[in-house]
Amino acid sequence: MAAVTRGSFTVFRRLLTHQYRSRCFRLQNFRSDRTVQLLSFRCETNLQMFSSRTLHSSTVSRGPIVSFKLSDIGEGIMEVTVKEWYVKEGDKVSQFDSICEVQSDKASVTITSRYDGVIKKLYYDVDGTALVGKPLVDIETESSSEVIQEEDVVETPAMAREEHTHQEIKGHKTQATPAVRRLAMENNIKLSEVVGTGRDGRILKEDILNFLAKQTGAIIPPTLFQEIRTPAPPTAAARPVSTTAAIKPPPTTPKPAFTGKDVTEPLKGFHRAMVKTMTAALKIPHFGYCDEVDLSRLVSLRAELRPIAEGRGVKLSYMPFFIKAASLGLLHFPILNSSLDEGCQNITYKASHNIGLAMDTIQGLLVPNVKNVQLLSVFDIAQELNRLQTLGTAGQLGTNELSGGTFTLSNIGSIGGTYAKPVILPPEVAIGALGKIQVLPRFDAGGQVVRAHIMNVSWSADHRIIDGATMCRFSNLWREYLENPASMVLDLK
After folding, report:
1. In 3D, which of 420, 413, 386 has the Cα closest to residue 210?
2. DSSP structural state of residue 133
3. How far apart are CA 378 and CA 384, in angstroms?
4. Which of 162, 197, 330, 370 has the least CB density, counted as fewest CB within 10 Å?
5. For the residues of 375-411, what is the DSSP string, one character each?
6. DSSP state, 192?
7. 307 phi and psi, to 5 degrees?
8. Residues near 258 by Cβ (< 8 Å), separated by ≥ 6?
9. At what angle do helices 319-332 and 378-394 cross, to 10 degrees?
10. Which of 130-144, 239-253, 354-368 has the least mean pLDDT?
11. Which SUPFAM superfamilies does the record associate with it (predicted)?
C-alpha cells in the first residue's frame, strides 16, 4: 500500500511541475491575463508545499551512489592510461568539474563529471589502464533516486557521442565556467581548440568570441591577437607580449643524470602510437627522391609580406608557401593525395587536402594537419599554423587536429639537417622532408656566381601505386611554384 501511495505521489508531483512550467511560460508572454496569474500562484503554492516535504526527507537520507563509466572517446580506442587524478575520495564535485586526465595512443582527454556529489571511490591508480565502458569513479549524487534512475535510462550506447561532449579532448586540464562552455557549445566550438588567456590558462568569454571571429575570417585588430602567441613564463605573465618577445630563447641543454642502473618502463601514449604507426609503415615499399630548391625570390617576397601579416596579428613563416604549393601540385597529381586499403585492392582519392606538419612538441613528435588547404589562402594557412603551434606548445593538440591527414610535410630543417629519409604515415601514400635553408653560391643565367637561398627536399612515396616519374613531376611542379612564387597567383582560388 505504501509503495502505491508513494508512486501516486510521484506521478502527481511530476504532473504538477509540468503544469507549473507551462503556465509560467504563458505568464511571461501574457502578463495581462489575470486568470493565468491566479492559476500560476495556486500551482506555485502547492509546489512549495510539496518541495518543503521533499527537502525535509532528503536531509535525512543521502542520494544514491552512481558508477560513472568511461564512455567511448572515438577513434576505436578501447583503453586509456590514467595520467593524473584531479580529485580524491571524499572530494565534492559539480557538473563539468574535471575528474582526471587520461591518455590514449592518439591524444589526451580530460574527463569531467556529469553529476553533483561526492567522490566515493577511484577505480584506478595513476598510470593504470582504464577500459572504455567500465566504471571510472563512484559518485554519491545529490539528486533524488528518481532523477538518477531517469539519467541512467538515458545513458545508453546510442548517447555515447553526446556524453563525449563533456569530455574535452586536449593535452591538459581545461578550465572554463559553465557559461563559457555553454557559449562554446552554442557556437559549435571545441574548447580543445581555444587557448585560454585567463589565470592558469582559464578560458574566458573573450577567448571564445575572438576564436569565433577568427573562424569567420574577420580581420581583428592586432591587440586581440595576443592570445595566439607562445605563452610567457609564469614570472613574466604580467608583462606585455611584444613581437620581439615572441622570439624563442636559445635552447638550454639539461645536465645528464647518471644513475648507474638500468631502467625499464612500458611504452605509453604517443610513444606506443609511434610503434604502431611505424610498424605499419614498415610494410610499405618506400621510394625516395631528393632535389634542391632555390628560394631566393620567395625569401624576398616573404620579407615584403611579413610586416603586413604581423599587422594582422599573424606570424608569417615559409611553411604556408610550402603547404600551398603542395596543395596546388596535388590538384595535378591527385594520386599523391590518396589512400590504399589494407588488401591493396582499392585506392581512394581524397577530395580534401589535409596537409600535416610534423611538429616537435613537449608530448613528442605529433603531426597536426591543416584542413582543406585547397580552399585556403596563404594567409589563412599561416593563421591556422599559428593556432596549431600555440596548441602544440601548450600541449593541447587534440584528436581533431591530429586525425584526417592526407599528405605530410616534415620541416626537419627547423632543427637542423639537410637531407632526411621521411617515413610515410599510413594510410597516406607520400611525405616530404624539408631541409634547412642555406645561403650557397650558385650560377645565374649569365654564368655569374651569385648568393642563393637553397633548400633541399626529400620525398618518400608508396612505390606500390606511385612510380618515380610521378613523384619527380610533382616535385618539379612544387619547386617551380616556390622558385617563382608569382606564378602561384595564377592558380590560387
Report:
1. 386
2. T
3. 10
4. 162
5. G--HHHHHHHHHHHHHHHHHT---HHHHS---EEEE-
6. G
7. -65, -30
8. none
9. 120
10. 239-253
11. CoA-dependent acyltransferases, Peripheral subunit-binding domain of 2-oxo acid dehydrogenase complex, Single hybrid motif
Q: Can you list the alpha helix ranges (DSSP code H) found in 219-337?
A: 269-281, 296-311, 319-332
Q: How many CB atoms lie within 10 A of CB 2?
A: 6
At 7, phi and psi to the nearest 5?
-65, -40
All three cell numbers of 79, joined, read 583503453
Q: Sign of torsion, CA 434 477 480 313?
A: negative
Tell me the average pLDDT across 148-171. Answer: 36
- pTM as predicted: 0.57
Closest CA to 411 of 368, 377, 354, 350: 368
CB 400 within 8 A of CB 192: yes
Query: How is residue 117 written as a grid cell?
Result: 556529489
Neighbours of 275 (CB within 10 A): 12
Amino acid at 199: R
Q: Is 18 a catalytic residue?
A: no
Active-site residue 467, yes or no?
A: yes
Which is catalytic among the residues 341, 360, 444, 467?
467
Backbone angles phi, psi at 238, to 5 degrees: -85, -10
Q: Is 289 helix (H, G, I), strand (E, B) or coil?
A: strand
Length of the chain: 493
**In this predicted model, which residue has the larger pLDDT, 312 or 187?**
312
First to last CA, the chain: 76
User: Does residue 149 contact residue 131 with C-beta atoms inside 8 Å?
Assistant: no
pLDDT digits (tens, 9 = 90+) for 225-261: 333 333 333 333 333 433 333 445 555 666 777 777 8
> What cell numbers appear for 194 in the block?
581555444
Q: How far is CA 231 from the centre of its chain?
A: 17
* Opening angle at CA 59, ends 88 and 117, nearest 5: 25
Peptide bond into 426 cis (omega under 30): no
**Nearest-angstrom CA–CA distance, 78 and 132:** 5
pLDDT higher than threshold 90 for residue 169: no
Question: Which residues face 169 on adjacent strands?
Answer: 109
Cell of 141: 549524487
Report the SS3 class of residue 230.
coil
446: DSSP letter: T
The stretch 361-389 carries a mean pLDDT of 91
Q: What is the reported pLDDT for 213?
A: 67
Active-site option among 116, 166, 463, 491: 463
In sequence order, the 6+-apart residues with CB closer than 8 A to the CB of 422 are: 408, 410, 431, 432, 433, 458, 459, 460
Q: Say if residue 296 is exposed, middle or buried (CB neighbours under 10 Å; 0-12, 13-18, 19+).
A: middle
Taking the C-alpha atoms of residue 84 and residue 77, their distance in angstroms, rounded to an integer, is 19
What average pLDDT does the segment 282-288 reach? 91
Residue 165 has pLDDT above 70, yes or no: no
